[in-house]
Each structure stands twice: as structure tokens, then as C-alpha cells.
Amino acid sequence: MRFFVGKIAAVAVAATVTGCGAGPVEKQKLPREPKGAVGLVSLQSDDTGDSAMSEETAPEATEPEVVPVLCRLDAPLSPSISLPLTNANIHALAKQKIEAKKSQDAISLLQLLLRKEPQNPVYMGDLATALLQCGMMDAGVSTMEQAAALAPQNADILANLAQTYEMAGRFRTALVTYERAAALAPEDSDILNNMAVVMVALGDAEGAEKTIRKAISLSPRNTAYLIDLGYILVRQRRLQDAEIVLRRVIESEPNNAGAINMLGFVYFQLNYRERAIEHFKRALQIDPSHQAAKENLEAVETLIELNDVE
């Protein structure tokens, strides 16, 4: 799940103002957890099953290159403590490494698992995520495609593949893939939300509105979807409608910096510059790290200065 951000761009001395939705501030984290029959395959060790290995037997049963990774756990371990190197534990550790952005460690762990179970689409998808974190876009796309080929009826893996295409700028392919995922999981509001994001990137604001409204009907309390809807309405120049939607979000969540920033963007588009500045500052008071609100505030103040000079 992710949401757009309203962003002002000051263009040269002419001070042209545009709304920029070049990308979401918050993207759904890869990987989505696959559900159903193609879920995590329980892997058994060749001879010893899933039993914990003792200190003496660990070197024989463990791939050499993965030992340093397994010894760098978040909590310090005594050398005398044996590691229960089940496949489930290795996979859990790999996912922790992905979450911590320790991608190289995750890659080593997942490659170990895939040597044992090369047809496991979950491990393959997680490996693709780690490769993408390392900036290996082509390898990440190819690996995610392999995961989807292994599980063509798994909506979550297809959604991950669609998002991978989106990251690579292949928006039309991403949309087709999201549509495949949505056909398998028509009640998945996150997939619909992501589809709307891609539709906006392709210039189909009307289709995006229809899709995001369906997502909202499935998850009416998801304010991120409402913020997306506000942005989509701005793209259609329906500024008053966007204001109503965003005020609704702020009424339920007064400290939602994303909604406040977006409403400031709407007010800027309506030429209410003082009101826009007020909202950008408020968003920054709530979340000083909100980069879009910071850039918006700087942009509108610069435009006001340029107008004063003229």
C-alpha cells in the first residue's frame, strides 16, 4: 500500500506551477506474503530433518558461505550456543535481513535455500526483492518473473511482479500484471490501489478514480486510499472535490501529515497561497521529515518572492 504526495515544482523565472505525482512516498514493501496452496514449502534437511544441530555437527550441515551470516544475528550469541538451522529459521532470518536492508546477507541465505528447493516461488520472490534492494534491477526483474512462472495462480507473487515492473518503469506491463493479480484476488484492495497508481502514471485519471473508489469500498477506513483519491481528483482539476475528500481524512486523523500536505497542494492550486503555506508548515510540525511538505513550502515561498520582485 502506498500513497501519492502533492508536490509543487517551480519552473525557472516564469514560476509555472505543476502538480507532480512522479512516485508514491510509501510503497508496499516487497514481498507480499503469498497465501494459499503455493505458500511456503517446508523444507527438510537431507538426512537430519529439522532438528537443531549441535556445535560439532553444524559445520558439516551448513553451507560454508552462509555461516558468517548466521553468526551475525541482531542479538549477540555465545559461541557455545548451537544454531537451529531449519529452513524455516533461515528463511525468517533472510526476511529480517531484507527488512533491515542487509541485502547481501539476505541473498546468501536465499541462495542457500534455493539450492535445496529450486522450485520454491516464495524463496525466489524474496531473492528478487533482495536483488532489487542492491540495485540489480535486471536480475531482480528476471528472478521475480521466475517466481511468478512457478506460481502463476498466486495473486501475491503476481502483485510483486507487477510492482517490480513498475519500479523498472514498465508501466503498461505492470498494469497488465496487476490486472492478472486482481482477477485472482478481486477483493484485494491493495492490488487495486497499486493499479490506480499505475493508471495515473499512464495518464488514465478516470480509470484510476474508478479503481481507487473500488479499493475504498473494500477498505473504507484506509485513509491512504482517500489521499490517493484526492490526488487523482486534482489530476482531473476537480479541486473542490479533492478538498472535500482530504478534509474528510483530516477530520478523522488530524495529525495525518500526508493528507495535510496534499490539502495544502490543493489550496495552492486554488491560488490560496497563505492557506497552502499554513498547511505545509502544519505538516512539517507533525512530521519534520516530510520531504514533500518541505519542498512545497520552499517552492511556494520562492514563488511569492519572485512575484514580489516583479
Descriptive notes:
With 310 residues, the protein is mainly alpha-helical. The protein has two domains: 1-28 and 223-310, Alpha Horseshoe (Serine Threonine Protein Phosphatase 5, Tetratricopeptide repeat), CATH 1.25.40; 31-169, Tetratricopeptide repeat domain (Serine Threonine Protein Phosphatase 5, Tetratricopeptide repeat), CATH 1.25.40. It is 61% helix and 3% strand. It has a two-stranded antiparallel ribbon. Helix 5 packs parallel to helix 7 and helix 8 (171-184) packs antiparallel against helix 9. It starts with 7 loop residues before the first strand and ends with a helix.
From the structure above, extract its key features.
310 residues; Serine Threonine Protein Phosphatase 5, Tetratricopeptide repeat; 2 strands; mainly alpha; two-stranded antiparallel sheet; elongated
Side by side, the strands of the main sheet go 1-2
- Given the C-alpha coordinates, what overall shape results? elongated
The secondary-structure element order is: EEHHHHHHHHHHHHHHH
DSSP, total strands:
2
CATH topology of the largest domain: Serine Threonine Protein Phosphatase 5, Tetratricopeptide repeat
The name of the CATH architecture of the largest domain is Alpha Horseshoe
- Broad CATH class of the largest domain: Mainly Alpha
User: What is the CATH superfamily classification of the largest domain?
Assistant: Tetratricopeptide repeat domain
How confident overall, as mean pLDDT?
Answer: 78
* Structural class by SSE content: mainly alpha
The low-confidence parts are 1-29, 35-81
List the total number of helices. 15
Which oligomeric form is depicted? single chain
Helix content: 55-70%
Rounded Rg: 23 Å
β-strand percent reads under 5%
Domains (count): 2
Could you describe the largest sheet, including whether it forms a barrel? Answer: 2 strands, antiparallel
Q: Cα distance, first to last residue?
A: 44 Å
